[in-house]
Amino acid sequence: MPFTAPRDVELLIEARWILPMSDGLPTLEHHAIAIDGGHLLGPWPISEAPQHVRPARTLHLTHHALLPGLINAHNHAGMSLMRGFADDLPLMTWLNEHIWPIEAAHVNPDFVAAGTRLACAEMLASGTTTFADMYLAPEAVVPVVEAAGMRAQLCTPLIDFPTPWSMDFESGVRQTEALQARLGHHPLISLALGPHAPYTVGDESLNRLREAREHLALPIQMHVHETRDEVDQGLAKDGKRPLRRLFDAGLLGPHFQAVHMTQVDDEDLALLRETDTAVIHCPQSNLKLASGFCPVARLQAAGITVGLGTDGAASNNDLDMFDELKTAALLAKGVSGNAAALPAMAALALATRDSAKALGMSDRRGQLREGFDADLIAVDLEGLNSVPVHHPASAAVYAVQSRQVSHVWVAGSARVAASEFVGLDRQALLEEARQYEHALRPVAGNVTD
Q1: Number of domains within the chain
Q2: pLDDT digits (tens, 9 = 90+) for 110-129
Q3: Average pLDDT over residues 349-377
């Protein structure tokens, strides 16, 4: 076999453990992985790495686990400024009487940008490198995501009534077309169509959505079957469950991301499986709004892709994916009555490989594999709450706190190093959040005690 000289690379990371999250590849001990040109090389045993690469710099992480960057598959990042604004309310009361009124009165591009800046910092600090965002003024989110150096799928808000972003559904579609033309092939940002929910999008708009999907070749993310009441209202109005209505409109498929899905009967399960539609699970938001429980174990047993999202900070109230995946693992056991449902490695897959698949990114993200995007995180497992480490996946799911994320790379660029932000001003973010806290205080004071 001919000798191949080691390749010059930017960075070699030597770690106590690597969790590649690839099918058939176990947890690796004392392995290294390289970053060069925004992509990954390896992994290899640490002793063998010099045969493959000659790094300009080597980082030794002696009690850390390397994982793919976490992927938050559903978020409303701009709503971070509404954290704690209207707590302890059911979904429709929360939306109709509090969230939509404050959005109409206060939300503008500056508000969205400020909320997203705060959200991006919170997500990076807790190990999220990619997020799907469904909120107003997506054009204002673009420079914020660029400045944070994260990746995002921006789901443009489409709804039948006027919002601060669009006058109606059709104007939202036109603005989506314009934003797509502006972004082109952006290295960090992709677009999706973001119709709000079946109960806020009429049949004519669903037909327009199908046309837009075909014309723009964009995925669709939509809240579907979030509550039992939504399903009951759909049956009363249309004589069919909302998911069936979407199927009849020709909208379901591998490009469709159905968020929440707390109500799943046998017909729903068959439609999801037949169309290869993905489900995005948001357990903490569903619990807080008393919306119901997504049957994750049942969906996975049927071969349906399930990703994980936090939803917005206004209904969660944080964007911590480690906290979310722990909740998902525990809830799956309680809902199914099976302690083996969603074990630790499967819970980590929800937040990495499976979320990447749900968002149509599985060919380049969600795993630590040769040639994949260099989006990865390091988690320090030497904490009083996480030792001894008998199984690093178990530690990461059931014991780790997000403050143990020590390093974050996106496209090979460090965004967090030794638990400190790279390129973000923590103090400025705190001060900006406080300004909005004071501005909204009179309104918030009228909502909850």
Answers
A1: 2
A2: 999 999 999 999 999 999 99
A3: 98
pLDDT at 447: 46
Short-list 361, 353, 355, CA closest to 310: 355
Quick check: is 445 in a domain?
A: no
pLDDT of residue 170: 97
Range of the domain at 22: 7-68+373-418
Together in a domain, 386 and 316: no
The one-letter amino acid at 212: A
Element (DSSP H or E) covering residue 75: strand 70-75
CATH number at residue 181: 3.20.20.140
What is the spatial distance between Cα 395 and Cα 85, in angstroms, rounded to a whole number?
33
Sequence-distant contacts of 24-32: CB under 8 A, at least 24 apart: 27/391, 27/392, 27/393
For residue 102, the surrounding DSSP H or E stretch is helix 100-106
Residue pLDDT, tens place only, 417-438: 999 999 999 999 999 999 999 8
Element (H, E) at 357: helix 353-358
On whether both 175 and 218 belong to a single domain, the answer is yes
Q: How far is CA 336 from the centre of its chain?
A: 24
- Determine what percent of the chain is predicted with pLDDT higher than 90: 90
Q: Name the token pair of 358.
A: 């749900």
Question: What CATH number corresponds to the domain at position 386?
Answer: 2.30.40.10
